[in-house]
Amino acid sequence: MLAISKLRSIAIKAVQQACIACVEIQSHLVNEETINKKDKSPVTVGDYTVQALVIESLLSSTQALGESEYSIVAEEDADTLAEQPDVQNKVLEYFNRYNASKPIDASRLSELLDKGKIKNPTTKRWWTLDPIDGTLGFLRRDQYAVALALMEDNKPILGILGCPSLPIASNTPNDKGCILIAQKGAGSFIRHIERDDEQPIHVSTQSDSSQAIFTESYVSRGFGHELNSKISKNLGVTRDPLRIDSQCKYAMVARGDSDIYLRLTELAYKECIWDHAAGHIIVEEAGGQVFDFQGKPLDYSVGRKLDNNIGIVCSNSNLYPALKESIKKSIDFKPHHYTFTLIFE
Ligand SMILES: Nc1ncnc2c1ncn2[C@@H]1O[C@H](COP(=O)(O)O)[C@@H](O)[C@H]1OP(=O)(O)O
Ligand SMILES: [Mg+2]
């Protein structure tokens, strides 16, 4: 089996190339009109192009080193694309512009995309990919991420988050575009999209909950914001939450710009694995905690969704015990975890 350090370089290269493509697709396809008309086609072009580019890059790089193919669990598949010939042509155009090897046709494009369609991986190591996480942020020209993780025995061992619109540091707001990288047991790092040097990152050491900075989705879904406000009130938090799209929230916690990220929006919603695997290991390797609302580890062994988990609780280590207590005060879990009640009084 290939050394993890080799796969780390392969994965960074794939995400870096994808981020460059995203920036160009966004600048050509997203204008005031598409934002106002809520035209999602630029997102569609971006999602498919990036999924195909990353899969092709991973396959060709690992094959060149004599490694057999790993399973890939990715968000998109080719079915709907084939029904939209205009979008498919644009995707092919962008793919062939960014992919270094010989041009591909529509049938190879479908084949590449559909490698991500599987329900259950069949290899010990497997990839999970969200080509554009935070599509609403992508359209708003706000935050979004290319999220790639390598799993081994159903746990993340590598996480790469490409964040094309996120400043490399909070004190340089105009220097945008960074990649966060974590390898199991080797820590978390940040690098600029256009540079090779990496710096280690760590979660904050904040232990005073009154000063804690929460982060949550920009988009309000279900009871998510209301619940977070209840939990933060119980903790004594005084500062307003940061609202950011995509796994950039994990990035903010991992590098200490935020202390806590909570995500629970509706009882029936199950989180997708590609929305968490990369951010999860990046926060853990930066010294933070990632569990669900019942304190259970995230279980990536049951298919494309986190069916055994309820929401996401992500925090620096100092605040985690108090956060757990505050969650207990805000949610009453019923026996056997089949139902739970939110206590909003
Ligand atoms: N009700 C929901 N609760 C939590 N996440 C959701 C919900 N509906 C969609 N999502 C997912 O949230 C992610 C964006 O999250 P964020 O708010 O953090 O930017 C997307 O992957 C989106 O999935 P999808 O891609 O299927 O729309
Ligand atoms: Mg997503």
TrEMBL record:
<dbReference type="GO" id="GO:0046854">
    <property type="term" value="P:phosphatidylinositol phosphate biosynthetic process"/>
</dbReference>
<feature type="binding site">
    <location>
        <position position="130"/>
    </location>
    <ligand>
        <name>Mg(2+)</name>
    </ligand>
</feature>
<feature type="binding site">
    <location>
        <position position="75"/>
    </location>
    <ligand>
        <name>Mg(2+)</name>
    </ligand>
</feature>
<dbReference type="GO" id="GO:0008441">
    <property type="term" value="F:3'(2'),5'-bisphosphate nucleotidase activity"/>
</dbReference>
<comment type="similarity">
    <text>Belongs to the inositol monophosphatase superfamily.</text>
</comment>
<dbReference type="GO" id="GO:0046872">
    <property type="term" value="F:metal ion binding"/>
</dbReference>
<comment type="function">
    <text>Converts adenosine 3'-phosphate 5'-phosphosulfate (PAPS) to adenosine 5'-phosphosulfate (APS) and 3'(2')-phosphoadenosine 5'-phosphate (PAP) to AMP.</text>
</comment>
<feature type="binding site">
    <location>
        <position position="132"/>
    </location>
    <ligand>
        <name>Mg(2+)</name>
    </ligand>
</feature>
<dbReference type="Pfam" id="PF00459">
    <property type="entry name" value="Inositol_P"/>
</dbReference>
<dbReference type="GO" id="GO:0043647">
    <property type="term" value="P:inositol phosphate metabolic process"/>
</dbReference>
<dbReference type="InterPro" id="IPR020583">
    <property type="entry name" value="Inositol_monoP_metal-BS"/>
</dbReference>
<feature type="binding site">
    <location>
        <position position="133"/>
    </location>
    <ligand>
        <name>Mg(2+)</name>
    </ligand>
</feature>
<dbReference type="GO" id="GO:0000103">
    <property type="term" value="P:sulfate assimilation"/>
</dbReference>
<feature type="binding site">
    <location>
        <position position="275"/>
    </location>
    <ligand>
        <name>Mg(2+)</name>
    </ligand>
</feature>
<dbReference type="InterPro" id="IPR020550">
    <property type="entry name" value="Inositol_monophosphatase_CS"/>
</dbReference>
<dbReference type="InterPro" id="IPR000760">
    <property type="entry name" value="Inositol_monophosphatase-like"/>
</dbReference>
<keyword id="KW-0479">Metal-binding</keyword>
<keyword id="KW-0460">Magnesium</keyword>
<dbReference type="InterPro" id="IPR006239">
    <property type="entry name" value="DPNP"/>
</dbReference>
<keyword id="KW-0378">Hydrolase</keyword>
<protein>
    <recommendedName>
        <fullName>3'(2'),5'-bisphosphate nucleotidase</fullName>
        <ecNumber>3.1.3.7</ecNumber>
    </recommendedName>
</protein>
<dbReference type="InterPro" id="IPR051090">
    <property type="entry name" value="Inositol_monoP_superfamily"/>
</dbReference>
